[in-house]
Specification:
Order of helices and strands: HHEHHEHHHH
Structural class: mainly alpha
Number of helices: 8
Low-confidence stretches: 1-14, 173-179
Strand content: under 5%
Radius of gyration: 37 Å
CATH topology of the largest domain: Rossmann fold
Shape: rod-shaped
CATH superfamily of the largest domain: HUPs
Organism: Albula glossodonta (roundjaw bonefish)
GO cellular component, one term: cytoplasm
CATH class of the largest domain: Alpha Beta
Helix content: 55-70%
Pathway: Lipid metabolism; Phospholipid metabolism; phosphatidylethanolamine biosynthesis; phosphatidylethanolamine from ethanolamine: step 2/3
CATH architecture of the largest domain: 3-Layer(aba) Sandwich
Largest sheet: 2 strands, parallel
Family: Belongs to the cytidylyltransferase family.
Mean pLDDT: 78
Number of strands: 2
Keywords: Lipid biosynthesis, Lipid metabolism, Nucleotidyltransferase, Phospholipid biosynthesis, Phospholipid metabolism, Transferase
Strand order of the largest sheet: 1-2
Number of domains: 2
Length: about 180
């Protein structure tokens, strides 16, 4: 039996840190049975703040159960370890099968959230630059198309003056006006 709660609470481990830690715990025994306690959303929110937990208790439960190193999940585990909870560890301690395991990972949910925010800001800045370049290209293409259109109109007008039907048509119109 392993006391993982205190270490995880002190270090605030999440995500890959949890998985690495659970793997370490799992490998400590020939016949491991790893029980993970999850706090209710309200409990996490009270201690971590309004943006937490990122995943609700149902999502967290499914995520933890999907971990190959976990045998069982207890929903609603207390946030603080009290005397009554520690009494459950007396027998494992007496039998010498109780061990405290350090997770050895400093990655926290806050670290991941900050990384996401930083990457989002970089992504937005990069996309604004791309958008500006694309708009400049689009404007240049429109200008070039307008210039080509004007050149074609000018070319058509110069060709039209030379052709006999364009010369006659204005005369016919004048003639029609006279009548």
């Amino acid at each position: 039996m392993f006391d993982i709660r205190q270490d995880m609470r002190e270090r605030n481990k999440k995500n890959i840190g949890h998985v690495d830690f659970l793997e370490t715990v799992y490998k400590q025994s020939d016949k491991p049975y790893v029980i993970v306690g999850l706090h209710f959303d309200q409990e996490v929110n009270r201690y971590k703040g309004k943006n937490y937990p990122i995943m609700n208790v149902h999502e967290r439960t499914l995520s933890v159960l999907a971990c190959r190193y976990v045998s069982e999940v207890v929903i609603g585990a207390p946030y603080a370890v009290g005397r009554d909870l520690l009494d459950h560890f007396k027998e494992p301690k007496r039998r010498g099968i109780f061990r405290t395991v350090d997770s050895g990972n400093g990655l926290t949910t806050d670290d991941i959230v900050q990384r996401i925010i930083k990457n989002r800001l970089q992504f937005e800045a990069r996309n604004l630059k791309k958008e500006a370049k694309e708009m400049a290209v689009i404007q240049a293409m429109k200008k070039r198309e307008e210039e080509k259109s004007q050149d074609r109109a000018q070319a058509a007008l110069s060709e039209c003056i030379l052709c006999s039907c364009c010369i006659i048509n204005p005369l016919v119109k004048k003639v029609k006006f006279l009548f």
